[in-house]
Amino acid sequence: MVARTRGQITQFLTRWDHGDSAALDELIPLIYNELHRIAHGYMRRERPGHTLQTSALINEAYVRLIDQRRAHWQNRGHFFAIAARLMRRVLVDQARRKGSGKRGDSPLLVSLHEGMAVAGAPEMDLVKLDDALKDLEALDERRSRIVDMRFFGGLSLKEIAEALGISVPTVEREWRAARAWLHKAMASGSNHGC
Fold first, then answer.
1. I need a labelling partner for 7 at 20 to 30 A (CA). Which of 51, 99, 141, 194 fits?
2. pTM score, two decimals?
3. CA-to-CA distance for 174 and 145, rounded, in angstroms?
């Protein structure tokens, strides 16, 4: 996404946040491809035969996004982090409704290796990951937000640093610590201090 488009996204988000509903109409064409990329990343990890399609995931996340009243969007990174979190909620809600792992259903497996599914990387059940992320959020909200932005939002370390107002080396360090904590928490099934 070019810098001009990124700036436009931030401008439209600010206008939308201030009650300009026309800004949302101008925003959608600019963000659709990125939302599709995020949704496709989730759906690529879904088990074969799942019932939710990429477009349905985008639509559900979109409905939840426009219901965000006065979100005070900081920038495009903040917006896409929220969009990714909402998509995660949609998938986790569906997995919980389907009784993930019961009656022959396979859980949605994901990898925490640099925010991408990588061959040979350990995979985890999305519902268990969501539970572990809630525990992490209770212990260290910033690390939890970094995981959301990096893993679920696909944001670069620089974009996360800008969104959180911290340095890139701090983001790198906290991303590594958060991943290690999540792997340990999921392996043992219990909470660990950060």
1. 141
2. 0.67
3. 10
User: For residue 103, is pLDDT > 80?
Assistant: no
How do the domains of the chain map onto residue ranges?
3-188
Rg (CA), the chain: 17
Integer Cα distance of 38 and 76 in angstroms: 14
Helix (H) or strand (E) holding 110: strand 109-111
Rounded average pLDDT over 10-17 = 86
Distance of CA 29 to CAs 4, 161, 162, 184, Å? 14, 26, 24, 40
DSSP-derived pairing of the beta strands 109-111 and 123-125: antiparallel
How far is residue 108's CA from residue 127's CA, in Å, rounded to a whole number? Answer: 8
Tokens encoding 42: 């989730």
Residue 35 near residue 58 (C-beta atoms within 8 A): yes
Nearest to 78 by CA among 175, 172, 153, 182: 153
**CA–CA dist 132, 143 (Å, integer):** 12
Nearest residue to 156 (alpha-carbon basis) of 121, 189, 114, 119:
114
Among 32-41, 80-89, 136-145, the minimum mean pLDDT is found in 32-41
